[in-house]
């Protein structure tokens, strides 16, 4: 168990952009160490804004706490060493090799760690992280030359190489094939079993239900629901938050499946009809 393992709490948090409030006074139940929470919600609900705010990349009001450390009270270095963040996309134009970029992410945490890994130890840890994600073969490739999915895996390696106590992953599987999706979610779960608190933004609700023990649903910057996925995911929630007519069923393997029957328009239900503003086919 990670000795830094501690609950992650978000209380009365508001985050936004100049002239554009997005997250409004959000409070969640404490997210315990050794857990995977999935963060879901419609486009523009504020999921990325929330993660970026609690990662310390956007100004946030309210209290974000990891154990006895708070976002507002910690230095940026102390917070980012303990709270790892994987953005939706890697910044464009990075000229580094993949391995160098992971070493750089690790090196950035060194002064705060109170220990100084040698260059070769950092390279070894970075290489092991790439191999764990199945992309050791990309180590000497320039980031600019990688596919979208490959860049996503390198971004994940950069986030986890520091071994943070809390890990925030923004749609880590959006560009990945089925095998890599499975691999990434397994890594997230394995990291949680070492004591890490992991939050993962996902659009695939069945995947979110499968991999998370706790689900948070955001809608228009506010909390729509949270709790165990099989209690949160109901037809009523999907209608209210996503505007779809859908059924939630358990398949023979015991996993939740979502079957969407149509879009809810003007009070119609299960019509499957296009919105009235569209021309007839
Ligand atoms: N840099 C920015 N400046 C101003 N507004 C922004 C900025 N980034 C996002 N927004 C706005 O904040 C709101 C929430 O966006 P956010 O990206 O957090 O949503 P999301 O739930 O992650 O969406 P998606 O599922 O589409 O990725 C949107 O209305 C968006 O237009």
UniProtKB/TrEMBL annotation:
Residues 8-245 form the ABC transporter domain. PROSITE patterns: ABC_TRANSPORTER_1 (PS00211), ABC_TRANSPORTER_2 (PS50893). It comes from the Bacteria. Keywords: ATP-binding, Nucleotide-binding. InterPro entries: AAA+_ATPase, ABC_transporter-like_ATP-bd, ABC_transporter-like_CS, P-loop_NTPase. GO terms for molecular function: ATP binding. Pfam families: ABC_tran (PF00005). Belongs to the ABC transporter superfamily. This is ABC transporter ATP-binding protein. It comes from Camelimonas fluminis. The lineage of its organism: Bacteria, Pseudomonadati, Pseudomonadota, Alphaproteobacteria, Hyphomicrobiales.
């Amino acid at each position: 168990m990670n000795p830094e393992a501690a609950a992650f709490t978000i209380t009365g948090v508001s985050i936004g952009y100049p002239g554009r409030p997005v997250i409004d006074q959000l409070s969640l139940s404490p997210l315990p160490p050794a857990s995977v929470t999935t963060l879901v919600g419609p486009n523009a609900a504020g999921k990325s804004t929330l993660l970026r705010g609690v990662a310390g990349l956007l100004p946030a009001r309210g209290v974000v706490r990891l154990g006895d450390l708070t976002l507002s009270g910690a230095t940026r270095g102390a917070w980012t060493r303990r709270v790892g963040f994987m953005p939706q996309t890697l910044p464009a134009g990075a000229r580094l090799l993949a391995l160098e970029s992971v070493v750089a992410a690790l090196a950035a945490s060194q002064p705060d760690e109170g220990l100084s890994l040698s260059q070769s130890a950092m390279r070894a840890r970075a290489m092991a992280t790439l191999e764990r994600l199945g992309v050791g073969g990309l180590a000497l490739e320039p980031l600019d030359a990688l596919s979208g999915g490959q860049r996503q895996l390198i971004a994940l390696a950069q986030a986890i190489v520091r071994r943070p106590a809390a890990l925030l992953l923004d749609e880590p599987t959006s560009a990945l094939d089925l095998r890599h999706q499975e691999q990434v979610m397994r890594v997230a779960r394995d990291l949680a079993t070492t004591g890490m608190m992991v939050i993962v933004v996902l659009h695939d609700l069945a995947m979110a239900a499968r991999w998370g023990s706790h689900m948070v649903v955001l809608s228009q910057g506010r909390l729509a629901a949270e709790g165990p996925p099989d209690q949160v995911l109901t037809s009523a929630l999907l209608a209210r938050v996503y505007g779809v007519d859908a059924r939630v069923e358990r398949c023979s393997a015991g996993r939740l499946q979502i079957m969407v029957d149509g879009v809810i328009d003007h009070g119609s239900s299960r019509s499957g009809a296009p919105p009235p503003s569209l021309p007839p086919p």
